[in-house]
Input
Amino acid sequence: MMLEISICQQLADFELDIAIKLNSFHVLAIYGASGSGKSTLLRQIAGLERTTRGQIIYQDNIWQSDKIFVRPEKRKIGMVFQEPYLFPHLNVEDNLLFADKKVEIAQFEQVIHDLELDKLLQRMPNKLSGGEKQKVALARALLTKPQLLLLDEPFAAIDQATSLFLIDYLQQLDIPQILVSHSSHEVLRSADYVIHLANGKIIKSGMLNQMLSSLAGYTQYHLILNVVATNQLSAGVVLTTAIGNIFCPAWQITQITRRLLLNTMSITIHTAEVRNGLVASIVAIKNLVSYSELTCQFVTGIQIIIPIAQSAERQQLYSVGQTIYLTGFHLEFV
Output
């Protein structure tokens, strides 16, 4: 078991009561409104606060139980807060080395290069922008070689460009991460597993695409896809994804990121093979009051729900088990 949390603690306005077991994750997002207990839960995972009852186990190591409490510095974690908490009297280089004065030179040089801190090493914190400070805070956490990275609203107070840069960088790290955020868009860009928290309780949890309807602004007609590869053409770009190659016209591209948001409401369904059509099969049909929902499955096993107008003609057109071809994808890079 990678992470097991079973804790109960009375807070000012409600009881924090969490029970969850996860076998694996890369970025686990703890999502919810302000005051839902997200940061308290993260601080207890870090060991900065001690729960009244219960236990926290990570990688088969008991970090906290009724009889055991492992101190934060013994948990081998890195933590980045919304506020960078840099030492104001130390320059960037000394702030970084404060984490571990025995840090390997190769690792130090790699981290400062990756986070574009090369030219900032001699600057004092008061000469840095908010985004630059957060890069330093992240670099400092990474130089400790953590087995788990804890991120408490790290993108909330920085500009969008730096936020996108850091999210993309974090996605490439081979380190499990737990992200606390009240922003559905940050969760969409970052997470592979989501816990939705409200008043100290887990409302729902699951893989990102299972949780989209729980994130503000998204529905069951959305799907997140990772972009595996791109092929630039004169008229646009071909994106390799888990459901196949999708052509994205140039006019639809603002910037190419590692994730796509697919809106299935724009999809056109064809019953005969068409150029650039992605092959899928209908696995379920649900007739609602004024429309129907087709659950379609691609050869990779990924499923999407497509809403269609309900009519006698349409109902006769589709059947469970039928092969269909899909075009007209409306894509948004996130």
